[in-house]
Fold each of these.
Amino acid sequence: MGFTHLDTFIVVAYLAGTLAVGLAAKRLLSNISDFLVAGRGLGLFLGVATLAATETGTVTFMYYAQLGFQTGFAAFITGLISGVVMIGVGWTGFIIHRFRALELMTVPEYFERKYSRGLRVLTGVLVATGGILNMGMFLRVEGSFLVILTGIPFEYLKLAMTAILLIELLYTVVGGMLSIVITDFIQYVALSLGTIIVTIYCVWRVGWGSMVHAVSAQMGGQGFSPLSNPTYGWGYIVWQVILWTAVNTCWQTTAMRTMSMKSPELSKKVFGWTGLIFLGRGMLPMLWGIAALAVLGPHADSMNAMPTLLAHLLGPGVKGLVVAGMLAATMSVNSSYLLGWSSIISQDIIGPLRRRKGQAELSSRTQIRINRVANVFVSVFILWWSLWYTLSGPLYLYLNLTATIFLSGTFAAVIGGLYWKRANLAGGYAAMIAGAAGTIGYFFLDLPATYSGFAAFGLAAAAMVVGTLLGGKRQPRRKERAYA
Amino acid sequence: MPSTGGFWLPFWTIALIGSGAVFAGITVIVAIRGGAEVIRMFRRVRK
């Protein structure tokens, strides 16, 4: 069934509506704090909506559906871990409570307060590298989803990718974080409705029994048990718990939400609520992948199976609603990520390097201008990377490992800085370098993702301890003595 | 039918129903309460 005029009308009306709201929100923007962390004025429900929308994109649905297609119900363990860990972070306030209390704008900013300006710049470079490589696969996957679902011929994929990028660039550059949180709210509602509609359609049209039978016939017990499935096992479970704790606390776009809340207590509540959403955010798209396996069989392309199924399954009008919902997801994630990574370039690389040279502090207006130029630079790079890079394994693992380039070291150095009085600069440098080096196994030596991910986090933690012990004592800086 | 992993199929069934229900419930709550927060934000600026 093709993409009807009704579907097109729904999608165009949605895009025009959110763009108008994003532009209206520009009136609220007055300084760099508004631009990057929404003036630290977010309440509970807007905080939940913006955090959930930021971390739920079309790419999320695609990689989780691919895991469901490839590993059946056993994949649910990944969704379960992401939600439970987030609830745990919200409950304990681990890292996030202290981060919000320090009134930071970016994660590397903490490194200058605790360690040194040089470590902030190194962290900024690693965060920007890993973050931009991570985002580099988004456009291709999102473009494929839209092309398949709307029935546009595949030769227009590049055009679709460019169009997605231009729209999200427009309202990120124009409005900054305030626009993003307000449009995020609309997008959260739209993407949640899309998620619920697709799930109902999958269960109704494909049938629970068919899905269970397909997984059972293709994979046997391994399709249900994450302990006997070779993709998972205990090693994977422990690695994912560590990784998701790091993502929830030190991932720049998530941390920007923590820093945007009205108070540290509120940021804990937001994480608790969003963790509950994350359970469904993981498991529901995995179910779509399993439905695709039941309908299309095991030989279909694992990445494109889910959108192919939806193109067959959804009727006129419903398809338009789902495409609008997925576009909503795409816009909210990509605009926040663009802002997140470009803010690292402007705040943590260019700014500190200028101060090191003895140049004057940039005005808020100039910082926003640099941020916008960085936005455009990041956009051009990810468009090029999307077209050039060929993905060999599951997308989920590629995203995990590109994130680990900086998350492993950042996580160790942040925990050391916040919870260990002896942590010092030598430990901070050692953690960042060892963590990044640990991912080499995956990218260059074809090591399994679990080994490489474990190695990166293990090396970073060990380097933090050894570096600190060998580096001697250092008095913590005055500003963060309360948390040192 | 081949194996369905013993304990795991009922476990995932409950987890899926629970997470789906929570997802839908929170969507409704956030839509209503978050919408009110957005309106308050715009009103503050208009004043």
Amino acid sequence: MTQLFEWQFGGWLRGVPPVTAWSVVAAAALAGLMLVIWLYRRTLRQLSPAARNTLTIFRAAIVLLLLLCLANPSRVEKEKPSAPGKKKLAVIVDRSGSMSVPDYRRTTRLADAVRVWKQHEGEAAAVFSEIKYYRFATELVPAGNFDEAVATAKAGPETHLYAALRQAVNDDPGAVVCLTDGLDTTGTAKDDLANEASRRNVPLYFVAGVNRLQPSRSAETLNIREIVAPGTVLRQARFTVGAVFEVAAARDAQLPVELWCGDTRLAAAQLPLRVGMNTLPWSVPVVSSAIGTLPLEFRAGTNTGQRAGCTVEVADHKTVDVLYYQGALQWGYRFLRSALASDPGFRLTSILNPALNVQISVAAADQPTLPDLPDDVNELKQYQIVVLAHIFANRLTARQQAALVEYTRGGGAVLFISPDTQATAGFAGTDLEQMLPVVFAPPAEAEETAAGVNNFHLLIAAAAGTSGGESGSSLSRSQALPDLKPFALPSGAAHSAVSALFEKNDESRPHYVQNARVRTVKPGAEILAVSATPGGGEPQVLLARQQFGDGFAVAMMTDLLWRWKMSLPSESHAAEKFWQQLLLSLAPASGGGLRLVKLTESPSTNQPVMVQITGDTTGPTPNVTAVSPARKYQPLTLQPATNGESGWTATFTPNTTGTWEVQATGTGKKSARLVFPISEKTQSAELMNLPPDMDGMRQLAEATGGAMVEDAPVFQPRDETAAKSGLQHVQPLWNSTWLLGGLLGLYGTELILRRRFRLL
Amino acid sequence: MNEITRIRFLKLLLASTVFAPGLAAFGDALDSLRGDRVGWARLKTPSPHWRRHSEGDPLLMQFFRQQTSLNIDPTWYVAEVENLAEMSKFPLLFSQGIHMIQSANGCANVAEHIRRGGFLLVDACCNRDITPDFDVFLRQQIDFLAAALPEAQVVSLPADHEIYRCRFPIPDGRPPHTFFGNVYDSQKASHGLYGIMIKQRMAGLISLSGLQCGWAHMIAPPGHDVACMKMLVNIYIYAMMQGG
């Protein structure tokens, strides 16, 4: 981002060359000056030459200042153009095993990629100031030149493609070129990489290595990577459990998956597999029944050789600690607080933006308040939900935002509520927005105009001392207050605990008055409610949710629904139920269930198998046991996890083939189990001869502004047109308060002097 | 008509020129924190005085917008006591007195507005022709509420109540009284504010102080208008920031 000062001009002068525009301004200035001199040549009273000159100078200064304002001085922020400039280029070469396996023509994927890249090396050298070379299999290693990057004694056993690219992107090169077959065998999602590359404005280019290697039809790896389930749910509550499956497929196929509760099959599905590595999430809505423990188990594959299970505790009641932070004075707090007060299961701690200089009133000593939003994640972790109501970006410090992001990533839930498009626009590009499920709209010019006109009317009305009365004017002003509008379900919405809040077409469906517009909903986010569009048109997103780390971030783009509450009969508890159920649905973890994750991708006999235990780290260390096919139980020793996550790891070495099981039991009745086959030989996706992942590479390239490098030239020398193609943010300076104040000051001084010289 | 001297005019012009940019910047900062919009409404009752001093309401709204970030309309609205839907558009209703409401529908509407979470603010005018006896006025309000809203209790608020300090500190925890003709009345001065309580929640407030007379510039000591507006801002904010 670079900042420039520019004279932007306006109207028809905008399109003409600067010399012409300045000539017109100079001519106008000259004409203005002559007119001023001519006007002050004769005055009503005789003036001394000094007085005449002083007045002339003041008037001329006003004219010149006005012309300068009309020339539209602006501050222009230019984003870096996406086209590569004179920066360094990072070329990284995939040296994993799959790149070195020859086909029947003795051609490897590496050789194919090198051949293509050689065609472009010259054009890249002309565009970039420096080219740096790296190679990777499991980690990124610098190389002195391209030949050194390509040549290596032994190919790596795995491909950590996305991690290597992420590492390269972190150095902020002008672009990254990767010679690869696009296979990442670690199961890492590529979304984080795409987001980071976009954020740093680093385009990714891929040189695909292709050969005629036939995929192995006998081998296939299947792994249940993780289960996501709440630790505790309320009785008769609808909640969602999910699992993530990792499959390396040699051909297009379908993966049968099932969810079981004891001896009952709750759900089954066929997940589509495409050739290559697949990471497949599957979630299922479940209704909790009686109080007690709900044993859930996911099964995958035709012979259900892969199983992973956990238990969910069904409770009659649970306490939800809510931290409520309000950025502006509005009536919503009174009604939300009242709604939660009717259920003793909610404990509300309130904070009001200290800039408002207002104290929150509490009716009882057990309703705590805080002076400001904590900037320490450990303080936030005392709460299951943080509600941010009508907040402003410039009132949250970077530390507070970072703490909120960390809190959510660690399993907390954040509910962001704002009906104000301009206020939400302030969060564009902030850490908080990256966590939320929506991308905020910039303040549209039309909305700014509408707001300006509205404020103007308000000020005029205030200045005029408008009063009501029994005439028609009071009626019209009463009707001018906005009407209530209902929430609606988005088309094709799946039934869930939250969607049930918007399904009924009666008074229990919430209504709002004002909503903020969002630019878009992020991929992977779930739209829970939209605006109703009885007359057609595009519905606006009102409520959306996305998983962020282990937690949830929810954006509610409406007011706090107090007008809806006021419109309901006092006997109605619809508003109370809405808030209570919404907040309950957002607090799914409540301590988290016990989780087992198999870290060893393809376990085999006499090789150590590592599992990770997470989700119940507050209590004592869980008991973990490995069970052999012959039902021999082997207790495992736990070590604190060292991969940056909370929890423990345990390792055991299976000595026989067959179906092995790992069981973990934690506090209360929490438990988890993992069932998987042990084979004689390690089956690595690396050497399954999987075809190159062309779609994955193309998606990454397009998402970051890069391209697939093929025969056609890719890197063009940057010209002025390309330089200008970067995004510009223009901020006019002519309407600065100080400039206009100075202009007014000059004019006022001239008037005072004219009065003093008895010309007025 | 008040005439302004030339020197005073020039001073004002100079002062406005110098301070206008600073005030604009301050206003911008406050505007950026405004919440969703809300209107100030007077409860229209059968009383002929229901809109008395309403000409001063825009001044109060202006004071709100200058001193707080509340997004309140600068104009004032009318809420007809016979029209519950209209009343429900406003979370706080201002009344000259509810004892004049005679119809069953009107009584029920006042009670329902409060039960839905609304707040009722009653302020007695200081004029002896309107309010001959403030003790009687208070009794009339209590009687009305006892009949229409039996679950409510009217209690005198202590001097250390939060309502006297939640935004502006009110000296000695005593509301500023406007006295008719600026003649001190010790009996009236003995009254503080009275809360209409439903369990722990303050659902409304009765003031005998004539706050409206103060902000509408009735005869009073200098600065009394601002003191009355500060008291009202405190009442309004207290109503907003406690459970409905």
Amino acid sequence: MGVRLTIRCIASAGALILAGSALAHHSVSTNYLTYEDDPVVLVGIITEVEIRNPHSLITLDVVDNDGVTVEWLAEWSDGNALRRRAVNVDLLKVGEEVTVHARRHRRVEHVVFVRDVVLSDGTVVRDCGAGIYRGDEYYATCEESEAEQGEKDPFILVP
Amino acid sequence: MRCRSGTRTTARAWTGLVLLPGALAWSAIVLGAGVRSDLDGVWNVTGSYSPDIALNAAGEARREAYDFLADDPHMQCMPASVTRTMITPSPLMEIRQHDDRVEFNHEFMDVKRRIPVNEQMIARDAPIASSEYPHLGRSVARYEGENLVIDSAGIHAGVFSTFQWVGYPQSDRMMTTERYIPDGDRMQARITHFDPVNYETPFTIVITYVRIDAPLLEWGCVPEKACVDPRACGVDAEDE
């Protein structure tokens, strides 16, 4: 998994079409607003972490402006993808206070989709998304991808 | 290529479908039996697209009625279709070719398809491809040149996609032809869908892949946990 493959591209014209099509109809986009349109920033205590398929889940207790503790559900990428992309999910501990940047659910209150999680020591846990597999180059992990391409929005599919 | 809507175009398109078996037989004669190409290995999606898909009035009504929260089979750990299984960008797909069959192993929903290679067989007489998910239909494979071609029928009505083309319907008359076109460590899959119940013309979804060196992982979807929150899957909280 540590090997970066550089492979020639077939049908480059088609590949350009791919990115736009996929981005426009991504299933996460069906359920969630974009972060840019409606960013959600939650500061809360992790009560549960489930790395699973088809989607992972972080449960948080968040104290709202009225002092009431509200449970928020933060959906995340599928567990296989998180493991394959070497996202360090083991850093997420029950009982720890974290800041979650996330996308708001279109219909359901207190449900979001994770963009990144910032731990109390400033460590950022982030999934760079399926975009790392796009295009002429294949990066096995987020770390390799970001070292080469820089940080990208996880839902922008690199053509 | 975009197909125009309208009676003449529609008639021409579906006439083409009627003529398809004959055309396939002709192409098999011209091309010969085909050559088994090197498709073995683990593949990762790099992209997918389609020309405009032309729903007919009935298909449009079904798509309008689809509720992505309440009706997504994904939330019951069910793959909506072979196309839906193949276009998901993160889960991997493995192909294993044998003399008498082709095996597809997908991470997504742990879908496994076992498809006989038989140039004489037609899809509706073929065996169920996935014993775990019989709604995916009956499939038979052949080679045309270096391309692997799979015809499927007996697909159950529902939606063919909950991803990208969310809520697009399929009837139990849907038939598909998958064409796998190898190019070294790249591959293109072209899945043509024939469903006169819901669409003006046949349409093709194109999916591109790269072959990678990675193990297939178990998906292990559990229906009780497939939905993040019952409210988010259209289940009334009072029913819980």
Amino acid sequence: MNATTAQPGPNHARRVIVAWIVLSLIATPLVAIFLGPNIPPGNGSDQATQQVFDNTVMVSLLTPVICLLLVFFVYALAQFRKPRGSALADGPPLREQRTVQLLWIVLTSLTVLFLAGFGTFELLQNGAGGGQGPAPVAIPSGPKMQVQVIAQQWEFTYRYPSYGGLETSQLVLPADTQIELHVTSLDAVHSFWAYQLGIKADANPGVDNVAYLKTKGPQTFSVHCAELCGLWHGYMFSQGKIVSESDFAAWVKQQQELFASVKQYMPPYSTAYFPDPQRRAG
Amino acid sequence: MRARTWKLVGTIVAVAAVGVVVGLYVSKLTTEAGSPSYTVPVKTVNGKPVVDLTIQTVAAVGPQLSPSHPDFVSYLIRNAQGKWMRDTVWRLPAHATVHVTIYNFDGASGLRNSYLARPQGIDGNTYSVDGKTLDVIDPDDASHTFAVPAYGLIVALPGVADNAKNQCGYAPCSLSMAHRTIQFTFHTGSAGHFRWQCFVPCAAGWLYGFGGPMQTIGYMDGFLNIA
């Protein structure tokens, strides 16, 4: 079709924008209110709740973009179909639209800058559940209970330095407590992923990877290795528990009794271990 | 137009069928051991299933039982006829009492994690080593472990002394050769598919002992198929 002979038609841009705005105004609150709280990872810790909020913000920001794409596609399919039986013809030529270009650059830049600032702010609050390496920068205030996570092919064990270096094969944490995890490995590279707690930290031999969490109420959570670590990687999972303070004290007592016989053989607490048989863990 | 529609429908159906087949295959792989399991003979005591599981650990499995990897360290299981087999996938009854006897013919290489020297997940959290009841061994003396992580079961196996006489070279090893005898009892739970493994990186000749038999099902690890 020759542009000079084109008949003036409806204002497609206006139609698309109006439909987009209406759809976005309906969809975005629905997504934020109903979908957002159900987004993983859950509600096992302050960090997990914070991640749910972050994911809700991101999905809410994404919703208008998806709406725009949907509206545009549906409108284009409905409006710009080739009429049945008509000859195949070229469309009108594209013309420069400075306003559209400027809007595109400004809006996308603002969105990206906002997300960068928002993400950095959220990360700096309490580490957001990620491993921060041996010298963490986002350290929550207040007292913290240290728990060391020791990965090996193919199980995690947990050492509690404030309870006489007690080591167990089940992760049990007291409720409403600030926890300082020290994640390390004594053989290959693993990754400690406590899903419902929103914690994921690499476990590398020789490295003390610190991550923080503040537990919520009693519940169970799953622990997985999130780094392909050998033959039984797929089986390297277990269940952890958050229990009340009194139950935690009872559990510690029980574990200390079980642990008593091996205590004499345990090396001093160390923040990192190595695959070298002479520098053993646990 | 009609031909195109049929082509489209045919393609969709074919893709869906291939997807279902792939899905079923992956599902089968993830829920089965991947190799045939040895059904351990079951007896009934007071109406409950009881199993005697007799296994041995050897420093080198030998060409007779593993022609492709004769130097691999390995577990073996003794069948009802008293023959030693290199089979690490075992079928056991659910809710059964399992009496385990392990003859360890390998030397000590030490645990990487001393914590595993404390037996757990077994009756009384104690076990018998050469007839003596123990609740821990020196981690340096450990040769291997028998562990079923899903059961919280960990048993460290003390090794044969370096200067012991008549040490076994290649499996199957005779009980007249230097060995340690480890005995304990555990209980199976509901039906399921549970891996067992050795936690000592004991693959001689591999970096830090991690490769070869530690990364190959059928030597130092396997499955308990509980049914």
